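Morning!

As promised:
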Amino acid sequence: MRFDGATIFVTGGAGFIGSAVIRHLLRDTGARIVNIDKLTYAANLASLPGATENPRYAFEQQCICEAEPLRKLFETYQPDAVMNLAAESHVDRSIDGPADFIQTNIVGTFTLLQEALRHWRSLSPARRARFRFLHISTDEVFGSLGAEGLFTETTSYAPNSPYSASKASSDHLVRAWRETYELPTLVTNCSNNYGPYHFPEKLIPHMIIKGLAEEPLPVYGDGQNVRDWLFVEDHAKALALVLERGIIGETYNVGGRNERTNLHIVENICDLLDEEVPSSEGARRRLISFVKDRPGHDRRYAIDASKLEGELGWRAEENLETGLAKTVRWYCENRPWWTAILDRGYQKVRLGTG
Ligand code: NAD
């Protein structure tokens, strides 16, 4: 079985993508998982049903900015790999309060790299040769595209938000630890993810939850900003594949070839909700309203994932239509998961207007 007997640190494993990675690794591989998560507002251990009963799973509440406790975790668990997904991830929050983004995304990645390097140097030559540090990043580091073209692995970095600038910095640190200290690192840059267990502040769950409540659906600007959407479980599988077969020092773009405008996404959600839970008030598209745009809002992102597809044989299994239908159905059928977040005091209010 893949990763049989290997111990993998997954940082940020209580978040949206990290939890999908852990669900995939526990279900489809023989890996032992140590979930290292600070449990910020974005974390939810309820996104890992059944994990605590699994003998191949351990949870450690820990901030990646704290070197000494991290060192103890490396000494205790002796991992064969690190997948770094711990991050502050919401662009609008980074506009209102960039400090946490600088701290976790840059200082946290630096601290984790230092402790991973110390651990790697302590390993036997055979285990050192197998060790991997996979850093998970975003296509937002490349900035914004015009109407044409795709981001490739050689596109220059041009981040525009405090979030993407902090992720770009962390990507550079990871590269430098490979070039300078020979730590076996890899980086992935992925497009927008969506799917089950997504925190309600992100576009797709936000619109589903507001649509179910018959509340206005606020679309930024003219709604014509384009994102390239990837179902989160396809991302999780891509990350496991890169960890297993990726070439040290390389970066891999991950994307679903599913470019859509934000307005198209919201209209589609309205139509799917109308099918799942018809409203006596009429079609939900009537709820769409246009609001002031996000400052520095990138116009278009689109990913060329042909390196990952050609070299490692990855393929996205869901397209936007199948993935969005699954997602809308999941939110309709799993209300306790997201109503618990609303009950904890999360307000569905607009952030990041600058
Ligand atoms: P998320 O916000 O849902 O989860 C982040 C997790 O990290 C949370 O569980 C949080 O508690 C944890 N965390 C935050 N600060 C921490 C710290 N200092 N120490 C330990 N844990 C900490 O984020 P996500 O959407 O799952 O994104 C995961 C990674 O993937 C991020 O690095 C993000 O930049 C990247 N990414 C996200 C997307 C996307 O569309 N969501 C796309 C491409 C790349």
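The pocket of nicotinamide-adenine-dinucleotide is lined by residues 11-12, 14-18, 37-40, 42-43, 63-65, 85-89, 104, 108, 136-138, 167, 190, 192-193, 199 (CB under 6 Å).

Hope this helps with the figure draft.
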